[in-house]
Amino acid sequence: MSDRRPIIAGNWKMTVNHLEAILLVQKLAASLNEQQLTDVEVVVVPPFTALRSVQTAIDGDKLLIGLGAQDLSPHDKGAYTGDISGSMLAKLNCSYVLAGHSERRQYHHEDDVLVNAKVRAAFRNGLTPILCVGEGLEVRDADGHVGHCTEQVIAGLEGLTAEQVKKVVVAYEPVWAIGTGKTATPDDAQEVCGAIRSCIAEAYGKEVAEAVRIQYGGSVKAANIASIMAQPDIDGALVGGASLDAEEFASIARFRDHVGR
Ligand SMILES: O=C[C@H](O)COP(=O)(O)O
User: Fold this and answer.
1) What distance in angstroms lies between residue 167's CA and the mean position of ligand 1's atoms?
2) Is 99 contained in some domain?
3) Are 86 and 121 contacting, i.e. CB atoms less than 8 angstroms apart?
4) Of 86, 122, 175, 236, which residue has the fewest beta carbons closer than 10 angstroms?
5) Would you call 50 helix, strand, or coil by DSSP?
6) Is 96 a domain residue?
7) What is the Cα–Cα distance from 122 to 15, expressed in whole angstroms?
């Protein structure tokens, strides 16, 4: 097993208001124990409007749960109506921010250049980007998934220093597995995650690649997390639907208790 610390993140997407978010983080804290929270990094990623409330709950109760945001502007300040800057997120004690989630790429036409600008904005503001990549069904059916995902990773990391690359979390999420109940098999997930680590090693060296944490995302649940985490190049999960159920999400974070690892 590698010494990379596993990271299990729950992306709440646009599903909860700030009151529901407070309840959810409190239930989650009650379902986890401190031992689990030191072995595994658990992060919640609420919508923007709930970040302040969740941050207050985490800080007030000294919960060992990390906070992330779902997106950020590539700009640091200015006349960008509707956008949220990295410095605003850092001020709310966010440690992580998603960049290039497939729903942003699909519904907001975010391309690799914009995603890369967001990754760099994250670092400028002391945030760790979770760079999301993944192929659609057509690309997978045409057997282009490995090349597609490694190109997205290299484009997303453009202009970063080796030390920054080491800190990046990459989330491999095959688009056809998101919210569909279809999980990639552990071997499918490992194939792409292994290729991602190899392409980072080629570009930045083996030491850098060995430090990068790579998550799998797409219909992760308690029943399948152990076999996913048993893969050598998978260091965590980016969980959508199942993270809205505190017990289920806590059970995912306890993946070591499940058979298979
Ligand atoms: O960010 C999370 C992913 O989009 C996965 O969502 P899901 O677990 O509902 O398939």
Assistant:
1) 22
2) yes
3) yes
4) 175
5) helix
6) yes
7) 24
Distance CA 124, CA 85 (A): 11
54: alpha, beta or left? (left if phi > 0; alpha if psi -120 to 50) = alpha
Q: Is 217 in the pocket of ligand 1 (CB under 6 A)?
A: yes
d(CA 3, CA 96): 20
Whole-complex ipTM: 0.99
Domain that holds residue 69: 7-257
pLDDT tens for the chain, 261 residues long, are 578 999 999 999 999 999 999 999 999 999 987 656 778 999 999 999 999 999 999 998 888 999 999 999 999 999 999 999 999 999 999 999 999 999 999 999 999 999 999 999 999 999 999 999 999 999 999 999 999 999 999 999 999 999 999 999 999 999 999 888 887 899 999 999 999 999 999 999 999 999 999 999 999 999 999 999 999 999 999 999 999 999 999 999 999 888 644
Determine phi and psi for 215, rounding to 5 degrees. -100, 155
- Known catalytic residue at 148: no
Using the mean position of ligand 1's atoms as its centre, give its distance from the Cα of residue 79 in Å: 32
Domain assignment present for residue 2? The answer is no
Q: Could you tell me if residue 1 is inside a domain?
A: no
CATH code at 133?
Answer: 3.20.20.70
Active site residue 101: yes
Question: What is the pTM assigned to this prediction?
Answer: 0.96
Number of domains the chain is built from? 1
Q: What are the DSSP calls for 140-209, one per residue?
A: HHTT-HHHHHHHHHHHHHTT--HHHHHH-EEEE--GGGTTSS-PPPHHHHHHHHHHHHHHHHHHH-HHHH
